[in-house]
Amino acid sequence: MNNVVVTGCSQGIGLATALELARAGHGVIATMRNLDKAGPLREAVEKEALPVRIMALDVCSDESVTACFAGIEGRVEALVNNAGIEYHGSVEEMPVAQMAEIMNTNYLGAVRCIQKVLPGMREARNGCIVNISSVAGRMANTPLGAYSASKHALEAISDALAGEVKPFGIRVAVVEPGIQNTQMAQNVGVRVTNSIYPQVRRFSGLFRASLANPVPPEVTAVIVREILESGTWKVRHPSGPDAGALIGMRAAMTDEQWVDWSAQDDEAWFDQVQREFGLNARV
After folding, report:
1. Of 70, 147, 180, 199, which has fewest CB within 10 angstroms of its CB?
2. Domains of the chain, CATH where assigned
3. What b/e string do you get for 24-49 counting C-beta neighbours within 10 Å, with b at 16 or more?
4. Is residue 90 classed exposed, middle or buried when 0-12, 13-18 and 19+ CB atoms within 10 A define those classes?
5. Is 147 a residue of the active site?
6. Catalytic residue among 87, 107, 147, 197, which?
C-alpha cells in the first residue's frame, strides 16, 4: 500500500508500526506532534532507506489535522490511529482537565483523522482504518478509568463506523494490546504512594510485575501489518500473550463480580492476580 498514515510515531507502538510497515514495502507517512522527537525514526529510515515520510500532526488540533492531510499527495489507502496519551489515577483525584485531554487525544483525535480519509476511500471504494485501542477498551478499573473511557469510546465509534463503510469496501479494525513495553506502560508502573485509593497503588505493581518480562510493541506492529495485508474483515484483534486472558477474565464475570474484584482488600487481590496470572504484583 501507498500513503499509509500512522499517527503517534515518535515512540512505542507507533514507531514500531511505521518501521514494520515500511520494511514490508508499504509507503508510510509517519506523523507525530513534535518533530523534535523524530530522531529514532529518522535514523532508521536513513540507515535502511525506508519509504517513510515524516510529517507533523497534532491530532488534538483541527488546523493541524487539516494541514497534514492536505499536504499528502494522492489518496490515503490506510490509516492507523495510534496517537494516544495516558494519565492514571482515581476518578476523585484526577483533574477534569486531564480527563478531557485524554478524550480529545485518544478518541476525538482518531475521529478527526478518520473524517479526513473517508471521502477518498469512499470514492475509491477501498481502504482500511486500524484503530489502536487496548484491553482497557473492553474492561475498566482504577487507576485507568479515564483512559479506559477513551478506549471504550474509540471501540464504540469503530463499531458504528465499520457498519457505515463496509458497503464502500472500507475495512475497520481495532487492535487491543495488553501490557506492552512502552513508555506509557512504564509510567503506570511507577510506584504511587499519595492516593487514598489502594487500587491505584496495587495496579502499578501489576504493571511492574508484567514489565519484568516485557512484551515489545513490535508484537502489535506485526498485527497491524497482517490486518493491512490480509484483507481481513475481522474487527477486533487482541495483541500480546496477556490480552486474551485479560479480556476473557472480564467477559467471564458479571458486572457485580467485576466490581467486587476491584473492591476486595489488598491481600485478596494480590493473591488472585498471583493465582490467575502468575504475577507478583506486590513488588
Report:
1. 70
2. 4-182+215-251 (3.40.50.720)
3. eebbbbbbbbeeeebeebeebbeeee
4. middle
5. yes
6. 147
